[in-house]
């Protein structure tokens, strides 16, 4: 690694594009290329026109200026002093920059480098359980950059004092710098802005509405046009899954053509329309139509919400936001069960359906606060001022330079997560089909098969048979079937929280095996109980266990594993085919479970048990553990990925002195410059008099 780290002392470095001569510890600073002008005053909070005459002054940290002038230092600039005497030597260091293998230069602080790495490696998706990958990436880069910093510091000390750092000093600096950088990288995980909060709120309402409509058909079944046949009601339930795949396909097209915000608003209107059609339906056939419309909206939500929030949030918040939307989904299921206690009657069932429209209308009132995705805007126009304005609001930035750095993160990540090949022999760029390339790539073939198998298992495990027909299942098992249904909804919410804790500690393959095995045993207990060998309470407990085991593995992981197993360029394609397959399997469960239950009776969970046993065997034999989940693995990948780059002035401790200057600091800088000019004039006058 040391061969890619240059000395801070003056040196010459030749590359393919010519020679770069470094002077005064590097002429590449935060201010960009050297300019020939001087005396240009920066306008407002923009620092794009900083004069060259101030560069050397600002390369010395504010702490050094304050020490020389005997002034008090602000708390922000004192932060760099916390790591001891080594910092005194580091204060004269210039801003870090990276020299790519093609000779191009990129000026970024270590924190900015780390955020750029996170943007490239974390897909633009808000996904429950992604926190582990986000944190592991932060830890990996912090350790990686701290090693570069320690090597650079050692060379710098040797060049300036003639002494290398001893092993104890190296270890201490490595630990301190790694923790300092990790702390800076994870600030985004605890800092949110009001615009981002509104975005999460509105998106979560879509997922809440989807969850509500998953379970809303359970309680009012005896009262909705009494006398309907089993086939008619199963079609009403399954119509939700007919609209789902269509909505998922349309959502992708609408999101690209009308923007993420426009697609979300169309989805909201679909919820309003579907709810009204159901509530005002004169017959069960019209209920089926309304149910299909809501299915279209729900299918669109499963695509739009993760993408929208993933493109608005910084990388280390995408897992948290995905978890919040997952909670909104399961809470929606529970609320539908609770509402059933009040409205599941001959006169209230229409109000149950109308609540879908009411919630969507309230969401529509909040859309003025809904921001467009900056990634979508930048994809259409890299110079978009609207995208920069939105980024500034989302991140709470104060300075133009911060916004431009964030724009570079977006553009770089979008390019790395694209299947466009810009290195073909013709010298042009040829866009490839991600879906076709994914299936042709032999390296990811097992991953594709694993993804498809897990999506089939997700639905054919029978979980939606519980949520769609729990009233039918609990009839005869418990006095009031709605009580059992509500109990399952509450357990589902708690199990989602438990799953969140487990996913931070256990491997994905391990959780899939535990989940499928636990659900298999639960199915066997359910069958045995329904045959009279155990009490009905044991059957109820087995269903609760079944739901819990689903939520810790087969529920979230088939979706999460797509974001973790595939390269960024394949994530969207893999997520698309996964969504289509999941909805198709969901449709079959919703349509045929009443017939299975009627034919098999107490053995109705038998087919699900067979699927779960096969899933366990597949996971045990074939399913790979998610790659790159440990910091050590990720760090090894970073070393390999960045082997052709040279890091200059890797100064983690000094990064805090490179924050954009405030107006007060500019006044201090100009005053110091004037003092220097006055002193120079006096010296010249004295010399001429002599």
TrEMBL record:
<feature type="transmembrane region" description="Helical">
    <location>
        <begin position="602"/>
        <end position="623"/>
    </location>
</feature>
<feature type="transmembrane region" description="Helical">
    <location>
        <begin position="187"/>
        <end position="212"/>
    </location>
</feature>
<feature type="transmembrane region" description="Helical">
    <location>
        <begin position="574"/>
        <end position="596"/>
    </location>
</feature>
<keyword id="KW-0762">Sugar transport</keyword>
<feature type="compositionally biased region" description="Polar residues">
    <location>
        <begin position="81"/>
        <end position="92"/>
    </location>
</feature>
<feature type="transmembrane region" description="Helical">
    <location>
        <begin position="321"/>
        <end position="343"/>
    </location>
</feature>
<keyword id="KW-0812">Transmembrane</keyword>
<keyword id="KW-0472">Membrane</keyword>
<feature type="transmembrane region" description="Helical">
    <location>
        <begin position="232"/>
        <end position="251"/>
    </location>
</feature>
<feature type="compositionally biased region" description="Basic and acidic residues">
    <location>
        <begin position="10"/>
        <end position="19"/>
    </location>
</feature>
<dbReference type="GO" id="GO:0016020">
    <property type="term" value="C:membrane"/>
</dbReference>
<feature type="domain" description="Major facilitator superfamily (MFS) profile">
    <location>
        <begin position="192"/>
        <end position="627"/>
    </location>
</feature>
<dbReference type="InterPro" id="IPR036259">
    <property type="entry name" value="MFS_trans_sf"/>
</dbReference>
<feature type="region of interest" description="Disordered">
    <location>
        <begin position="1"/>
        <end position="45"/>
    </location>
</feature>
<dbReference type="Pfam" id="PF00083">
    <property type="entry name" value="Sugar_tr"/>
</dbReference>
<keyword id="KW-1133">Transmembrane helix</keyword>
<dbReference type="InterPro" id="IPR003663">
    <property type="entry name" value="Sugar/inositol_transpt"/>
</dbReference>
<feature type="transmembrane region" description="Helical">
    <location>
        <begin position="263"/>
        <end position="281"/>
    </location>
</feature>
<dbReference type="InterPro" id="IPR005828">
    <property type="entry name" value="MFS_sugar_transport-like"/>
</dbReference>
<feature type="transmembrane region" description="Helical">
    <location>
        <begin position="511"/>
        <end position="534"/>
    </location>
</feature>
<dbReference type="InterPro" id="IPR020846">
    <property type="entry name" value="MFS_dom"/>
</dbReference>
<feature type="region of interest" description="Disordered">
    <location>
        <begin position="63"/>
        <end position="92"/>
    </location>
</feature>
<feature type="transmembrane region" description="Helical">
    <location>
        <begin position="287"/>
        <end position="309"/>
    </location>
</feature>
<feature type="transmembrane region" description="Helical">
    <location>
        <begin position="349"/>
        <end position="371"/>
    </location>
</feature>
<protein>
    <recommendedName>
        <fullName>Hexose transporter 1</fullName>
    </recommendedName>
</protein>
<feature type="transmembrane region" description="Helical">
    <location>
        <begin position="482"/>
        <end position="502"/>
    </location>
</feature>
<keyword id="KW-0813">Transport</keyword>
<dbReference type="InterPro" id="IPR045263">
    <property type="entry name" value="GLUT"/>
</dbReference>
<dbReference type="GO" id="GO:0015149">
    <property type="term" value="F:hexose transmembrane transporter activity"/>
</dbReference>
<comment type="subunit">
    <text>Homodimer.</text>
</comment>
<feature type="transmembrane region" description="Helical">
    <location>
        <begin position="540"/>
        <end position="562"/>
    </location>
</feature>
<feature type="transmembrane region" description="Helical">
    <location>
        <begin position="446"/>
        <end position="470"/>
    </location>
</feature>
<dbReference type="InterPro" id="IPR005829">
    <property type="entry name" value="Sugar_transporter_CS"/>
</dbReference>
